[in-house]
Specification:
InterPro entries: EF-hand-dom_pair, EF_Hand_1_Ca_BS, EF_hand_dom, S-100_dom, S100/CaBP7/8-like_CS, S100_Ca-bd_sub. The protein has helices at 4-20, 31-41, 43-47, 54-62, 72-96; strands at 28-29, 70-71. The chain is mainly α. The chain has one domain (4-96): EF-hand (Recoverin, domain 1, Orthogonal Bundle), CATH 1.10.238. Bound molecules: calcium ion.
Length: 100
């Protein structure tokens, strides 16, 4: 049986391939696949992006090798950055509630 953290890692990998397998290279996200992943899995995050070209900007940020595709290594940077931001928010909330 997978531990909680192993389960979370497994879920991240499965989510990536669920969207990357739709068109083109099965192991990378095209811009359309990235957009669908953001909409399907990070809807709240996308909703608070004020820039209407945010998918374009996110794609550009993530595509560090500039091949027009987002591979898993590039994608995991987004998950890491968002997880760090969520943690900071959570810690701040607990501090404000006097629980930390
Ligand atoms: Ca790339």
């Amino acid at each position: 049986m997978l531990s909680q953290l192993e389960g979370a890692m497994d879920a991240i990998i499965k989510v990536f391939y669920k969207y990357s397998g739709k068109e083109g290279n099965k192991y990378t996200l095209t811009k359309a696949e990235l957009k669908n992943l953001l909409k399907g899995e990070l809807g709240a995050f996308l909703k608070y992006q004020k820039d209407p070209n945010s998918v374009e900007a996110i794609m550009k940020d993530l595509d560090t090798n500039q091949d027009g595709q987002v591979d898993f290594q590039e994608f995991i940077h987004l998950v890491t950055a968002l997880t760090i931001a969520c943690n900071e928010f959570f810690v701040e909330l607990l501090k404000n509630q006097g629980k930390l």
